[in-house]
Amino acid sequence: MEIRLPYPHTGQQIVRQQAMRINVLSAGRRWRKTSGPGFECAVLGAIEGKHWLWGAPTFDQVRIAWNEMKQAAGSVASFTQQRMEATFPSGGVVLFRSLDDPDNARGHTADGVTIDEAADVKPAAWYEVIRPMLIDTGGDAWLQGTPKGRNWFWREWTAAQDREDSMAWQAPTLGCKIKDGALIRVPHPLENPEIDFAEIENIYSTTPEDIFRQEILAEFLEHEGAVFRNILACINAPLDAVPFAHQGHRIIAGIDWGKQNDFTAISIGCVTCRQELALDRFNKIDYHFQRGRLAALCDKWHVGSILAESNSMGEPVIEELQRDGLPVRGFQTTAISKPPLIESLALALEREEWQWLDIPVATGELEAYERKVSPSTGRSSYSAPSGLHDDTVIARALMNRQAGSSAQWGSVSDLGHVEDYENRWA
User: Fold this and answer.
1) Given 99, 132, 195, 243, which residue has the most CB atoms within 10 angstroms?
2) Cβ–Cβ under 8 Å, residues 15 and 73
3) In angstroms, rounded to a whole number, what is the distance separating the alpha carbons of residues 324 and 420?
């Protein structure tokens, strides 16, 4: 009886030799990520008696690794499908978990982890569940996958290049470059040499260039899978802004309501300075307390006008706020009204018209936001990827919408108590 690991190609061997504690591998399709270095480390670790967690976005993707490991170690390890565990004679265990719900992996201790197709996994799986598993064990991690825009996987890939305990790679399916619209073969040390270049040429000739760059060359494209570009150039608003510095300026706010699983987000900005001043985000708070929290922020920053989403529970909450004297008006988000709202924010980022606060969760929402085009109508729709949130995106878009022109919203008196509210700060 013996372990029969898949024989690594030269690119995989180089990655394995260069590996450190935290490893982030961006690789093209058919590079053989699943059966690559992260797989080898899981098997060898379990042979040594370690507990290893293997995670992937869906159960079907987890099952691919399960079958690969059964083929490699089935004559040595005991595989229990009911618990999705592989137990080795040393006492080592590989635990397989689908991360469509990050809590599937909670409660376990791990000496090492592999997250396959990491770009499609929710950020909470890594930041809130899996990374903390390694605190007391000092264990290793493999984050591997093909890029999907500049989401959390890209951020970890970028950060790994500057950390002493980390390593990052960009491994194309096969080395090549695009020049003057033509595909040129350029060998890459990390490529999968078993791939036929004719196959890659065929894919290039039948695939949009951006998709080819992402799926085959493993490039992180700022616009791929996301709506907003030039984000990082705009994340430079001062984090220590004070109301006194903006006295007499035009201060506005945008609000997206949420409860339970969704978040309420409030973005406050200074139109005079074109700076976001505050960004608040919270959930599982009664609407009565949410109104109080909003009122406190408006009092602090002397907010003169508020645009809030009025869908669902938004309308009655807005009515309550108007009774309280807050200068709030509703915005009904529909399939017709949402695209121009989002596109206006995208244009503001493209042109660097605003300075936004450096809030990681909000930056992540911007980077992950998606545009889909209906094949039947050709219309664009915008949303966060499945399982993620877009609350701060909507709040910022509503705030930005107000900054364009007050004329588009009617006279100031149309906003109910706005004149009285603004006179308090005269």
Assistant:
1) 99
2) no
3) 12
The tokens of 296 are what? 């406190």
Q: What is the mean pLDDT of residues 163-179?
A: 93
Question: Looking at the domain covering 10-215, what would its CATH class be?
Answer: alpha beta
Structure tokens at 312: 């669902």
Strands 22-27 and 251-256: unpaired
Residues 328, 320: contact at Cβ < 8 Å?
A: no
Listing DSSP states for 214-266 in one string gives: HHTT----SSTT-S--SHHHH----TT--GGGGTTS-EEEEEE---TTS-EEE
User: Are 112 and 141 a contacting pair, CB within 8 Å?
Assistant: yes
Give the tokens for residue 180. 């003057």
pLDDT above 90: residue 55: yes
Token duo for residue 215: 């799926």
Q: Where are the alpha helices (DSSP H) in 48-196?
A: 59-73, 123-124, 131-133, 152-160
Close Cβ partners of 363 (under 8 Å, ≥ 6 residues apart): 231, 232, 235
231-423 CATH pick, 2.30.180.10, 3.50.50.60, 3.30.420.240, 2.60.120.10: 3.30.420.240
Cα–Cα distances (Å) from 104 to 97, 101, 292, in that order, read 7, 6, 36
Structure tokens belonging to residue 270: 């200074």
Q: 94: which strand partners?
A: 52, 86
Least confident of 106-120, 203-217, 378-392: 378-392
The whole-angstrom separation of Cα 179 and Cα 186 is 11
More confident residue, 358 or 411: 358
First-to-final CA distance of the chain: 84
Q: Is residue 387 classed as helix, strand or coil in its secondary structure?
A: coil
pLDDT of 232: 84
- Let me know: does 162 contact 145? Beta carbons within 8 Å: no
Within this chain, domains 10-215 and 231-423 share the same CATH topology = no
Cα–Cα dist 426/410, whole Å: 22
Q: Which of 284, 422, 400, 402 is nearest to 352 (CA)?
A: 400
* Partners of 328 in the β-ladder: 306
Torsion, Cα 75 81 86 88, to 10 degrees, reads -60
Amino acid found at 251: I
